[in-house]
Design goal:
Layout lengths: L3 H15 L9 H37 L3 E17 L4 E6 L6 E2 L4 E5 L2 H58 L4 H32 L10 H18 L2 E3 L4 E4 L9 E2 L4 E18 L11 E6 L6 E9 L25 E8 L12 E7 L5
Antiparallel strand pairs: 1-8, 1-12, 2-4, 2-7, 3-6, 4-5, 6-8, 8-11, 9-10, 9-12, 10-11
Helix pairs in contact: 3-4, 3-5
InterPro entries: AaeA-lik-b-barrel (IPR058634), MdtA-like_BSH (IPR058625), MFP (IPR050739)
Protein name: Membrane fusion protein (Multidrug efflux system)
Subcellular location: Cell envelope
């Protein structure tokens, strides 16, 4: 072990090695003034810049306060078309499926056509019967013409006989009874002529063509209309898509189901045209106008930013058109801020598929500045 003198000697040697220049090492107390100078400068910068930034931000907020109004009570909307059948009957074939994309004119389902095919054949028979009836009337009309000619000949003969009897009566060669008989035959011939003329007029009336369908007998025209109606109903047994879109609510459509006229069978969502319906608070509408720019974000696609314009502002609040409107005349009335539907038209179609009902957030630039 080293004694006390040796430890002191080693310590002195270590000091000399650490300080080759022979100068004493600076103490920590001597370094403090140089370290405090940068800290004071940084503190001054922070004390000046932070209030300045707050003042700038506050001024901007004060100047632009109320310019932008936003709501997250907004949803994607698309046209929906309820498909109904115009004729009734059992369904024999179903082509539509849930969420299937269809084009306008595609077959969705078919209804049993047999009753309507029978109606078409019955209408064809009615047309044939009407044509036969018209032919019979034409023959009768020609017969009445012959009757008129015969009645006219009878009148001429009766007049000649009457004139002869009158001449004989003047010379006393006939009797009063024969003269009266000749006059009676003239009168009867005239009545027969009038009857024949009436029959001819009736036949012409039955053969007359209607003004709505010139050149066609009314009976034949009616039969043809019934035939066209039957053919139209037959064509309606094939139910086609009225517009292009996606099929929804098709699960309730089953083969063998009896289709009722006017009852919605399924729904088509027209997904090629979308808009946003944003329900803004009534307090946000003061400076909102049609045509103002809007920005839309969707919860389903957070990275998708859409732009649009205010297309229309609702004519009433949502509560005004609800099934059970609020009864504000009661004594327990509580004021509630109402919301008004505002339609936002998108500037261009979205890059992603928009689905009806998706949640959205809408911000409208009203342009208001203080």
């Amino acid at each position: 072990m080293l004694d006390r003198d040796e430890r002191i000697s080693v310590s002195e040697d270590m000091v000399e090695v650490d300080s080759p220049s022979g100068a004493a090492a600076p103490s920590p107390v001597a370094q403090q003034p140089s370290e405090k100078a940068p800290r004071k400068w940084l503190k001054r910068v922070v004390m000046v810049s932070v209030p300045l930034a707050l003042a700038v931000a506050g001024g901007y907020y004060w100047l632009s306060g109320g310019r932008y109004v936003s709501t997250d009570n907004a949803y994607v909307q698309q046209d929906k078309v309820a498909v109904t059948s115009e004729v009734g009957g059992p369904i024999i074939d179903v082509r539509a499926a849930e969420n299937m994309a269809v084009k306008a004119g595609d077959v969705l389902f078919r209804i049993d056509p047999e009753p309507y095919e029978l109606a078409v054949r019955q209408a064809d028979a009615d047309i044939a019967g009407a044509e036969v009836s018209v032919a019979t009337l034409a023959s009768e009309a020609r017969s009445t013409g012959v009757g008129i000619a015969a009645a006219q000949d009878a009148i001429d003969y009766a007049r000649i006989d009457l004139e002869r009897q009158q001449a004989l009566m003047a010379r006393g060669f006939t009797t009063k009874a024969r003269l009266d008989e000749a006059e009676r035959r003239v009168q009867m011939a005239r009545e027969q002529l009038r009857a024949a003329q009436a029959d001819a007029a009736d036949a012409r009336a039955k053969l007359a063509t209607g003004s709505a369908v010139p050149g066609v007998n009314p009976a034949i025209a009616q039969a043809r209309v019934r035939r066209e109606t039957a053919a139209l109903n037959l064509a309606r047994t094939v139910v086609r898509a009225p517009v292009s879109g996606r099929v929804v609510q098709a699960d309730r459509l089953q083969k063998g189901q009896a289709m009722v006229v006017g009852l919605p069978a399924l729904t088509l969502v027209v997904d090629d045209r979308s808009w946003i319906e944003a329900n803004f608070k009534e307090t946000d509408l003061d400076h909102m106008r049609v045509g103002q720019a809007a920005e839309v974000t969707l919860d389903a696609y957070p990275d998708l930013k859409l732009t649009g314009r205010v297309e229309s502002i609702g004519a009433g609040t949502g509560a005004e058109f609800s099934v059970l409107p609020a009864q504000n005349a009661t004594g327990n009335w509580v004021k509630v801020t109402q919301r008004v539907p505002v339609r936002i038209r998108l500037d261009k179609p979205a890059d992603r598929r928009l689905i009806a009902g998706l949640s959205a957030e809408v911000t409208v630039d009203t342009g208001k500045r203080k």
